[in-house]
Amino acid sequence: MNKRIAVVSGGIGGLGTEICKTLARAGRRVVAIDLPGHPDRIDAFSRATQGLDVSFEAADVADFEACAALVRKVEDEHGSLDILVNAAGITRDTSLRKMDRRQWDEVLSVNLDGVFNLCRHAVDGMTTRGFGRIVNISSVNGQTGQFGQTNYCAAKAGMHGFTMALARDVARRGVTVNSVSPGYCETAMVMAVPEEIRARIVDNVPVGRLGKPEEIARAVEFLGADDAGFITGANIPVNGGMFMSF
Ligand code: CAA
To answer: Taking the domains of the chain in order of start, what are their residue ranges?
Structure first.
């Protein structure tokens, strides 16, 4: 069988890079997509993925037409797009009383519109071919809420609704749609939280530490596997016990 082709949005980010490496090591051909404006980060990503079947394409997930072109390009060059991981995410943390319209729009357009924009184009080929794995990277904060994150939590909780609805849309066509909800991990996004606040948050994590990006990637690889076809519309929390539910 041909290699499965995986696209990872936010692919050069803290979680994205590790997801790309893990999927490639599991035998996938991986296309990382991210904004073009950070040549230093793209160089670091190339070094981190050296020797693996991973390439980079520039695309803005907030741009519907750019996502259409990206999906077309991947399908033309590689023959299919089998696994889509929506890991592009940004924060613009501030309490709602200080939040301006731009901080709301930026977070919603990347974190939630971005999921729609890529899925909308990717599902056509997946359903036609009868195989697809979509994994949306949400957040524990989408489940619990977090001070200063009305924009982020709205988007991340929205991803769960989207995941469950799309899972039903495509369930009969070999396509699964799931989400993974990371807790606080060792990424630049989390390190940007002031140290004192971060320390208080980690104090409340039962395992007593930040998560490692590879611990998130492990769950993504699991959901992206060919034999994970009976898991759909689910959410896998990977949060060190910070939020438990059933
Ligand atoms: N709970 C309750 N009240 C709080 C509070 C909290 N956690 N933090 C601050 N307040 C209070 C303040 O004491 C202040 O009270 P007064 O008005 O009486 O003085 C008021 O709320 C406003 O506080 P600030 O002016 O400090 O609020 P701000 O608008 O500047 O926002 C913040 C502060 C930037 C949100 C800061 O609190 C922060 O960085 N918090 C952490 C947010 C966070 O966890 N982000 C996660 C990023 S990582 C990520 O998102 C990855 C993932 O998925 C897990």
So the answer is: 5-185+213-238
